[in-house]
Amino acid sequence: MHAGARLLIVAGPGTGKTHTLTCRIAHLITAKQVLPQRILAVTFTNKAAEEMRSRLRKILGETTPLPFIATFHGLCFSLLQELNPNEVITLIDEDQQAGLIAEAAAMATQSGNAVSLPTHRLQEQIMRAKQSLFSPDDLAQTDLNTPADQFLSAVYRAYQLLLESQRQVDFEDLIFKVCIGWSRTLRFCKRAGIDFATFVDEYQDLNHGQYRIIRALRLRTPAAGVFVSSAIPINPSTASWI
C-alpha cells in the first residue's frame, strides 16, 4: 500500500519478495484503478513469470485482464515484433547458436586467423559481449593484445553476418537490438502511449543491457512508478535513478 511512486524491497531468498510485488500489482489494479495494460512486470525465467500470472489470477479472478508479465527476453521479443510488424523474427536455441558459431570460426580461420578456440568458449564470450552491448566493431576498436582476442572479434563478426543472412537472432540479440535501437524504441513507446508502472523482480541479477532497458523505461515514464525487489543490498550508484 506504499503511496509513493518508488519502492525498493531488499530481502533474502525465500522471504516473499515476489509475493509482495504480486500483491502490490493487485492493489494498484483493484484499489487504485490502475489499468492492467499500464503495468509491466519483468523477471528472469518463464517459470517465475508464470508463477506471478498464476498468483495474480487467483487474486483478481478470471475476468480481469492481467498486466504484461514476461522475462526480459520476452519483453524485448514483443517490442521488436511491434517495431517491425512486417519482419519475421526467427529465434535460435543454444544448439543452433553453437552450430553457427562453429561455422563462423571456420570462416575466421579461412580468413587468416591462426588461433582456434573451443566453440563453447566462443559462445560464452560472444554472449558476454552482447550482454555488455559490445558489437563486433566495438571489440575491434578495443585494445586487442592477443591473437585470441583478434580471433574472437573475427568470429563474432562472421557469426552476426550468418545470423543476418538467415534472418535469425539469438537470445542475447533480443536485448542487444532493443538497447542499440533504443531511441527508436522510445519513439514507438511515445507514439503508442506506453506509460508503464514497472515492476522488476530479482534486480540483483540484471546485466548491463537489462539494466539499460529498465532505466530507460523509468526515465521515459517518471510519474508511472518503479517497484524493485533485490535479494542483496544495491549499490546506491547503480540505483539512484530509482
Plain-language structure description:
The protein is α/β, with parallel strands linked by helices and 242 residues long. It has 2 domains: 6-86 and 179-194 and 203-239, P-loop containing nucleotide triphosphate hydrolases (Rossmann fold), CATH 3.40.50; 93-169, Arc Repressor Mutant, subunit A (Orthogonal Bundle). 55% of the residues lie in helices and 11% in strands. It has helices spanning 17-30, 46-60, 72-83, 94-110, 119-131, 136-141, 147-165, 171-180, 182-192, 208-220, 236-239; strands at 6-10, 39-43, 68-71, 90-91, 168-169, 197-200, 226-230. It has a 5-stranded parallel β-sheet with strand order 1-7-6-2-3, with helices on both faces. β6 (197-200), α10 (208-220) and β7 (226-230) form a beta-alpha-beta unit. α4 (94-110) packs across α5 and α4 (94-110) crosses α7. The two termini are 18 Å apart. The mean pLDDT is 85.
CATH class designation of the largest domain:
Alpha Beta
Helix content: 55-70%
Q: What is the total domain count?
A: 2
The total count of helices amounts to 11
Strand order of the largest sheet: 1-7-6-2-3
What share of residues are in beta strands? 5-15%
The number of strands is 7
Largest sheet: 5 strands, parallel
Keywords:
two-stranded parallel sheet, 2 domains, 7 strands, single chain, 242 residues, Rossmann fold, Arc Repressor Mutant, subunit A, alpha/beta, elongated
Q: Brief overview, please?
A:
This protein is an alpha/beta fold. It is 55% helix and 11% strand.
